[in-house]
Amino acid sequence: MRAAGLHAIDTILNTESVLITNRHQRFPKLVETIKQRVEGVLMARRYVLCQYNIKRESLDKACAVASGRQAPTVTSLEAEGWVAVSVMIEKKELADKMDQLKEIGAVDILVLQIANART
Fold this sequence. Notes:
Elements: H1 28-46, E1 47-55, H2 59-65, E2 73-76, E3 82-90, H3 94-103, E4 107-113
Antiparallel strand pairs: 1-3, 1-4, 2-3
């Protein structure tokens, strides 16, 4: 709209999408697939993937700050005593978590958007 020089005047209708099923569904696998896809998009909107490097001796402190949804993914680096960590963090907590990770020695902190996910 903005590109065409238009702007909203008023809201005519607010809507929401709802997935409704019954106990006697004909296609339960399809319903479950649709549900998982919607949940994946919603999760991707809520979380980002944070990756950083940290000394192994500080890993427990880092995991206490940002433990992820299940657990962090930890990979050894070629540099002796260092690990790479990947963790999902809620967007609303991101800035504080990044500051805390930096304070305990995390470096090369990257944040990546998640396009979709599955639980």
